[in-house]
Amino acid sequence: MISATTRKAQSSAMQASVLALNKTYSPVHVISAKRAFCLLSKDIAEVISVEDGSFMNYDFGSWIEISELRAEFNERNELEDWILSVNFEIQVPRVVRLLRYDRIPNNTIKFNRRNIFIRDSYRCQYCQKKFSVKQLSLDHVIPRSHGGGMSWENIVSACRRCNTKKGGRTPSQAGMKLFQKPAKPSRNPVLLQQVKQAKYECWKNFVGSKELLTCD
C-alpha cells in the first residue's frame, strides 16, 4: 500500500514543470509532467536529456528503461521528480520535444495577479517588504478616479496597509514613493521564476534572452 507521504510526492511530481520544444528545438510551452507523459505515451513527443553538456533523445520506451536502470542502481538526486507506477519507476523529464510541431506560437504575457506579484518579487512597491500572496493586493499607481487604467505600467503589488494608506490618491499626493517604476516584463514572469530554480537549470540550454513562453 502506498503511504500518504508517497501519494503526496507523486501528486507533486505530476505537477512538476516540463519545457516543451518544437521540432527545431525552439521553446514553445511550459507544461505539466502529467501532460508531458501523455504526449510521450502517444509518441507525439520525445525526451531531451542534457547529459554532460550534450543532448540525448529518448522515446518513451527508452526513457522508461533508462529510469528503471537509474532506480535500480540508486542514481537519483533530490532535484529530480519520480513517478512510481504499478510496474516501474520513471523519472519526470525536464525537457520534451514535440515531434510534429514546427511553429512558434504567438506568445503573449498574461496580465494577471500572479504575473504582477512575480514581476514585483512579492514585494510591496511602497514599503519594500516581502509578503505572501494572501497579504498582497493590487494598487493603481494613478487611481481610476484620476483616469488610471489597468496596465502593466499602472498596476503594482502593495501590502494591504500601504494600499489603505494610499487610498484614492497618487503616490505624491499620499507622500509615498514607488520602489521601482512598473513596466511590462520582457519575458514570462513564471518562466523567469522557474528557470532560477536549480532543478530547472537545464532549461537555460534552450531558453534565450528574448523567448516569451506560454505556461499551461
TrEMBL record:
Write the protein's name: CRISPR-associated endonuclease Cas9
Q: Note the InterPro entries from the entry.
A: HNH_5, HNH_nuc, NA-targeting_endonuclease, Znf_C2H2_type
Q: Taxonomic classification, please?
A: Bacteria, Pseudomonadati, Planctomycetota, Planctomycetia, Planctomycetales
C2H2-type domain location? 124-146
Gene of this entry: cas9_2
Tell me the PANTHER family matching this sequence.
Answer: OS07G0170200 PROTEIN, SLL1193 PROTEIN
Keyword Secreted tagged: no
Q: Which Gene Ontology molecular function entries are recorded, alphabetically?
A: endonuclease activity
The signal peptide annotation in the UniProt record is none
Alphabetical UniProt keywords: Endonuclease, Hydrolase, Nuclease
Q: Which organism is it from?
A: Gimesia algae
Organism domain of life: Bacteria
